[in-house]
Design brief:
The complex is a heterodimer. In chain A, 80% of the residues lie in helices and 0% in strands. Chain A is mainly α. Chain A has a domain at 37-88. Chain B is built from 6 helices and no strands. The longest helix of chain B is centred in the last third of the chain and has 36 residues, at 183-218. The two termini of chain B are 29 Å apart. Chain A binds chain B through residues 1, 5, 8-9, 12, 15-16, 18-19, 22-25, 29, 31-34, 38, 43, 46-47, 50-51, 54, 58, 61-62, 64-65, 68-69, 71-72, 75, 79, and chain B through 2, 4-5, 7, 9, 11-16, 18-20, 22-25, 28-30, 33-34, 184, 187, 191, 199, 202-203, 206, 209-210, 212-213, 216-217.
């Protein structure tokens, strides 16, 4: 259980590292791309906004997860206490 | 926390997909231009939708074999998440098509097939709503689920390939491989599929747990 849980993180990190090596490409062969946008560096703003939206959604999911977990615990306790009453 | 590592993994991978998808190098193609990056976000939605539908199918079959109501619950929620991804896929596809194919919903076999396929699954949800008896609902909708899947896959994967379609890979259009779908692009698309599928499983898990709590409270 230990090994497979850490392996994916390692792989993901390696993937991230490998990509930066290919960041530059010969520019312009007549096809319009957002080279200027990238040169001005503003593309980072867009990336940050998207990442923020995604983070928001994930935080929402995590909170939902925790809340449902609490509810499950409560229901479990209630059930066991009810059974206790019935048994005694 | 021990059982939740895959959720963190999904988030991590998707953050990588966002950054690499926006900033990595892509092939320079006319008309598509930078919008080729949509491949990472739009196509992965459909791939993971199909994976979730397979999961829904598996649990439907499992319900029919073992008769456990819990399997039916899981089956519906997988279908629900898949339908959500499908709707998002239609929406993102329309946005993309508007700027590259000229209209939001061109008369394309793949689009029309998908519309029919989505209706098939809407019908599934409506069918479920029309039963009061739990066992009956579970049994009949599980059988319907199998039929729906068996029609959906040929509709969106096989039929569009037999005619002309704007989508790459269909009707003589070059597929991903020839479509300058370069190695670096695959290294973003496939992680995207994995991450979205995991997030889909997460949403499904939450909804299943909610249903279980509800079921216990109703007893």
């Amino acid at each position: 259980m230990r090994l497979p849980s850490r392996l994916p993180y390692l792989l993901a990190t390696l993937l991230l590292l490998s990509q930066t090596l290919m960041a530059q490409q010969p520019v312009s062969d007549g096809i319009e791309m957002a080279d200027r946008l990238r040169a001005d560096g503003k593309i980072w703003v867009v990336v940050a906004v998207i990442a923020a939206v995604f983070t928001g959604i994930i935080v929402y999911l995590i909170r939902l997860d925790v809340q449902i977990g609490k509810l499950e615990k409560e229901v479990k306790q209630q059930k066991s206490s009810e059974q206790g009453v019935k048994l005694s | 926390m021990k059982k939740n590592w895959w959720k963190a993994l999904a988030v991590l991978i998707y953050v990588y997909v966002i950054f690499q998808g926006m900033l990595g190098t892509v092939p320079r193609l006319p008309i598509l231009n930078e919008s080729i990056r949509n491949v990472y976000f739009h196509v992965s939605l459909w791939f993971s939708m199909i994976i979730l539908l397979v999961a829904s199918l598996v649990y439907a079959v499992r319900y029919l074999r073992k008769g456990r109501l819990d399997d039916d619950r899981i089956s519906v929620e997988f279908a629900n998440t898949a339908i959500l991804f499908g709707l998002l896929g239609c929406l993102t596809g329309s946005l993309w098509a508007n700027y590259t194919w000229g209209e939001p919903w061109p008369n394309d076999p793949k689009l029309n097939s998908v519309a029919v396929g989505m209706l098939l699954y809407f019908a599934y949800l409506i069918l479920r709503g029309s039963f009061d008896d739990e066992q009956r609902r579970a049994r009949i909708s599980s059988v319907y689920n199998i039929f729906a899947f068996a029609v959906f896959i040929p509709l969106i994967i096989i039929l569009p390939r037999l005619t002309d379609s704007l989508h790459p890979g269909n009707g003589g259009n070059p597929a991903f491989g020839q479509y300058q779908m370069t190695g670096p692009m695959r290294l973003v698309l496939y992680p995207g599929v994995i991450a979205l599928t995991l997030i889909g499983v997460w949403i499904t898990e939450l909804r299943v747990r909610m249903r279980r709590v509800k079921a216990v409270l109703e007893e």
